[in-house]
Batch of 3 targets.
Target 1
Amino acid sequence: MRVLVVTAVAAERDAVVAAAGAGAAVRRQSPPAAPGVLALDLREVALPTGPVLLDVLAAGTGPAAAAAATATALALAPGGHGLVVSAGIAGGFADVVPVGGTVVASEILAADLGADTGEGFADAAALGFGVVAHRPPRALARAVAATAGAVLAPVLTVSTVTGTAARAAELAARHRGAAAEAMEGFGVASAAALHGVPFLEIRAVSNAVGPRDRAAWRVAEALAALTRTFTAVAPVLRDGADGAVPHEEQP
């Protein structure tokens, strides 16, 4: 069984691929596309510690790009993927996870999908417009987090990255216990759910959520942590993809 790993950018994709080691065979894949339609650019790699075969995709930034690319990849290989993972670097809420830490999502939340009202923010679910939370399989998320030594907590999906202390405090108050924010997880999870494929989100923290202090970002360290995480969790991903770990959702 294959695992589809969806990242935003090439640097994140390459960090996941690097988990296979320097001597691993990496095959560039471009699944067939209709004339005039851009083909997906995936990397296929086998992780020796699994063994597990990953199709790793740089889908673009944001939930819409992530959802479209994930749905397309799954449609082009029907039944070919037993698990989908949204992966990459993220901002972390400092009181939950430090810079350099790793997070596995217990919930994947669309944090800014909704409307501003006179009483404050109302999410799309409260407005009657659908769901704002996807829950990965509980046992699988726990197993991945335990193996990686990661924090297991909600991860927020935002369309605009937080850049102020006030916004960070607002999100933390609205989503108690959230560990990180990123831009693709909810889109990936939405596409996977429509295809009936279980999903996870794994994030390595490169910076604290809040004021944008580029000098304090640790992108290279976070990418290295992402590589180490995928090396460590390969056997669990294999078991998740072939159903050896139960796929029930959290209540």
Target 2
Amino acid sequence: MNATSAAVAAALTFTWCGMVLGISFLEAPLKFRAPGVTVPVGLGIGRIVFRVLNRIEAVLAAGVVAAVAVAAGGPPVAVAVPTAVAAAMMAAQLLAIRPGLNRRSDRVLAGEELPRSRAHHVYVATESVKVLALLALGAAALHTLAA
């Protein structure tokens, strides 16, 4: 992997990771603790924020995949595997988990009282795996730069 590809992959990866950590693990749970924020208001805000985050994630993921794909000599396994894991987690979230969460939040926003959702825990688990993969990818890309 050449230095330019590694530098681009590292920069995009740590940007992506920082956004996920800031939004998923700070903003999302904290907004419900703010005075006056009801569950419907928090869900409405969350839907907008996560829709935008997911679009930005898709752009960053495409950039990371492109940087890894154009790496001279091909990417090392330490770069390729976490790239695939992060992309797979994002795809699972967007294609399998988020649609159900969106349907559920539609029902809550319509005034329905529902029990807690297990899908939310699955989303948090995939988000956690994605963050770990991004940290591993960023570290591997930086290691490639230092080598």
Target 3
Amino acid sequence: MQDFYPSRYASTPEMRPRLDPVLYSRWNDEAPISAQQAQQFDQDGYLILENLFSDEEIAFLQDSAHQLLASPSTLNAATIVTEPQSDEIRSIFDIHTQNPVMARLASDARLADVARFLLNDDVYIHQSRLNYKPGFKGREFYWHSDFETWHVEDGMPRMRALSMSLLLAENTPHNGPLMLIPGSHRRYLTCVGETPDDHYLHSLKKQEYGVPDAQSLGDLAQEHGIIAPLGKPGTVILFDCNLMHGSNGNITPFPRANAFLVYNAISNQLEQPFGTEKPRPWFLAQRGMPDPISIQRGPIRETVAA
């Protein structure tokens, strides 16, 4: 396959144009978001969706997240990533296959219908995870474009995917909220450095390859600014696969927990990685011929699989 977005091959970074649409659908009266929201996503690369779930649903989802964190022995050990300098859990991957409540969340029409509209295709879950920043010990997630990694290390061919981060704890200015550079999704920043074998074993704790250079990040931030969407539990932050984002560490006593769901278009399923010989493992990237999500409607607690 032709590599439309080469990266990690040159000694200097490049700012390349995006070759794919951002908004794949034309807005209409039956769309699950407003015309203004569709325009904002196209322009800025992100959306904030509020009041999608009831208080009872949020409490149910929070309880499920607590169960994941409290019972690591019941999970596949490969899917658990700890902090670089402690045994505190940093991320749990593949949560939609390890927890029936998270599976139900991933298929919920309030999320999946929006993804299908924005991508104009049936969708499947490319990756899911619970990101947790414990109080005092939660380390930063450095600036990055998800697509650069998904393309180089997983084989995602085109920019036809998006992430939804469901806040499961209040995100404040102080506990390491997600930071975004709006508009940065319109260009593709290549990275420097050949990818080592089994890079994921280190990058999930602290990424050293596939990291944008400081000069280019500075240029993007000067041009577009940086925002840090805040919100109460239940807020959904939706962003394009190529949007530059990151977060600071958490030195407050207040933990931060977010459920991440990555929706990819069925037509954009993975191929051989474009920058490595060996693909990353199953829990980081759904390979093969995935089935589209079967959309579910109604309150999560009442319709979750037993």
